[in-house]
User: Which sequence fits this backbone?
């Protein structure tokens, strides 16, 4: 009886700390982060494991679940995990990036507590510190719809997670040394599917099994560092049904380009001859194509997979045209009972336009990346903590870049923080003047990717925006010499990372933060700092400010 009372009190305490609803179920996890020897490309190397696993454990959740993850850092370096695509409503304290959190020191632990509030879909988590992502530490996070909310397709026979990504055979410390010395990473050494590389004609154990006549759901995410990947399954069509938390119009595809940080859910019908088939992932837009395979086996099937792989598309125009086919399913319900299309984003007046131009340069002889002439660096005191303790002026300056980029070929290294007016509807233009593809992500939000087009953006381009059924998502790609336009309401108070998903660019400064402050300073808009939050930098040892109230 005493143990039951203690458990109930603990749950109530956690609910108060995180600001979540006590009636929603809790999922508890304990993760031990360690080094371990892995050989995904056949060469032993140091990897980062979670509970001995590479990739890390999968979190299986349902909308509105409260997720509690106690992370023990057994590495020799500070460490953080970020939950890509999880919006952390009113709770940027759990975002797990250096702009919001002190890293978990070696030999210590930190407990993340967050709610997947009003979200469904396929997401990933991964390290955000010190190029640890190049060594592993990543995994998947599924968020299922609640039973009362209809899903716009029949229940699949089973669900499979497919984590695809490029891979380097060198350790993250060596790769980090390259970047710190001013060298780029260069081309990846291979491609992995769920942590393994497969070759055509070489015996492989099946990764997944399908029963003839049934339909299966595959959640496909690109967890790599550098390369966009094309995903396809030999002899099978891919029916796209969900993308980064939104139900989509259910088009059929021969293959899908999955850019870094993106997640797609597809339905695959087991309607072919019962035998083995190759699942294929290959790099896009690199001079040298890297390809890997995995086996899908039909139950009781006989026959090896054909060694003739389905061809990959060529050029980025194909990928741009595919993007234009992605549409929001206006009649489907997502995490809430009301249809997705009931939110008419196209009728909202834009209050601010921000143009972000990515650039590359050298500072003191070393490679750096940035936006609008500024290459971000993380100060010793996380931006959010400095702001919360009213010490922002001692750590960083707001708005060091302008909404309209100035013409410059140089980069200045400093923290890059933009002030956002709470609840303003903002247009962000990502402009890419380089010859390589970019992939961008915003923490804490989903946005409407209303246009991706070649050339240079101008206000007249708004005439061609998709203001009806653009997909609400959290990443967008920008093709070479092209631009992308997104629309969103900054209604989630906190400090939120806007970054390149090409991780060497992020590490070398192509990121910034959006500071979204509620003038009310009320619990209605933002939760108080959790009691277990480590303090570092100039706020270490300081008493916490007076808490917000309703």
Assistant:
């Amino acid at each position: 009886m005493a143990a039951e009372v203690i458990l109930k009190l603990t749950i109530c305490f956690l609910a108060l700390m995180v600001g979540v609803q006590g009636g929603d179920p809790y999922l508890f996890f304990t993760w031990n982060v360690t080094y371990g020897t892995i050989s995904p490309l056949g060469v032993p190397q140091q990897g980062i494991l979670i509970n001995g696993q590479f990739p890390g454990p999968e979190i299986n959740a349902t909308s509105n679940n409260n997720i509690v993850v106690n992370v023990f850092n057994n590495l020799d370096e500070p460490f953080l995990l970020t939950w890509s695509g999880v919006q952390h409503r009113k709770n940027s304290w759990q975002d797990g990036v250096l702009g919001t959190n002190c890293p978990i020191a070696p030999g210590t632990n930190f407990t993340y507590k967050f709610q997947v509030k009003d979200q469904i879909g396929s997401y990933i988590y991964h390290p955000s510190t010190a190029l640890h992502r190049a060594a592993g530490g990543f995994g998947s996070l599924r968020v299922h719809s609640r039973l009362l909310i209809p899903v716009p397709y029949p229940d699949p026979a089973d669900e499979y997670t497919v984590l695809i990504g490029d891979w380097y055979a060198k350790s993250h410390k060596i790769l980090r040394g390259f970047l710190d010395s001013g060298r780029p990473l260069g081309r990846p050494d291979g491609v992995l599917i769920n942590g393994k590389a497969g070759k055509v004609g070489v015996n492989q154990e099946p990764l997944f099994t399908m029963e003839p006549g049934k339909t299966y759901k595959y959640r496909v995410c690109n967890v790599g560092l550098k390369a966009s990947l094309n995903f396809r399954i030999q002899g099978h069509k891919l029916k796209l049904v969900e993308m980064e938390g939104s139900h989509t119009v259910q088009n059929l595809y021969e293959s899908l380009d999955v850019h870094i940080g993106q997640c797609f859910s597809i339905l695959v019908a087991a309607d072919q001859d019962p035998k083995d088939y190759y699942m294929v992932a290959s790099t896009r837009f690199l001079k040298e194509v890297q390809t890997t395979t995995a086996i899908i086996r039909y139950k009781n099937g006989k026959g090896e997979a054909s060694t003739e792989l389905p061809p990959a598309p060529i050029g980025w125009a194909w990928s741009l045209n595919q993007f234009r086919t992605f549409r929001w399913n206006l009649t489907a319900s997502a995490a809430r009972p009301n249809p997705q299309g009931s939110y008419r984003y196209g009728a909202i007046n834009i209050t601010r336009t921000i143009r972000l131009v990515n650039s590359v340069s050298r500072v003191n002889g070393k490679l750096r990346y940035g936006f609008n002439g500024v290459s971000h660096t993380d100060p010793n005191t996380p931006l959010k903590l400095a702001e919360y303790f009213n010490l922002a002026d001692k750590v960083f300056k707001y708005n060091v870049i302008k909404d309209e980029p100035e013409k410059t070929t140089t980069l200045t290294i400093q923290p890059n923080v933009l002030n956002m007016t709470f609840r303003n509807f903002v247009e962000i233009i990502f402009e890419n003047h380089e010859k390589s593809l970019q992939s961008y992500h915003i923490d804490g939000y989903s946005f409407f990717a209303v246009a991706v087009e070649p050339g240079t953006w101008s206000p007249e381009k708004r005439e061609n925006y998709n203001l009806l059924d653009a997909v609400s998502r959290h990443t967008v790609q920008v093709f070479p010499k092209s631009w992308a336009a997104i629309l969103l309401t900054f209604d989630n108070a906190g400090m939120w990372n806007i970054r390149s998903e090409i991780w060497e660019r992020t590490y070398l400064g192509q990121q910034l933060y959006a500071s979204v402050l509620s003038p009310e300073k009320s619990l209605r808009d933002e939760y108080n700092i959790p009691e277990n939050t480590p303090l570092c930098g100039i706020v270490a040892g300081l008493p916490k400010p007076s808490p917000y109230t309703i």
Remarks:
- The domain at 158-313 is CATH 2.60.40.420 (Immunoglobulin-like).
- Residues 2-18 form the longest helix (17 residues).
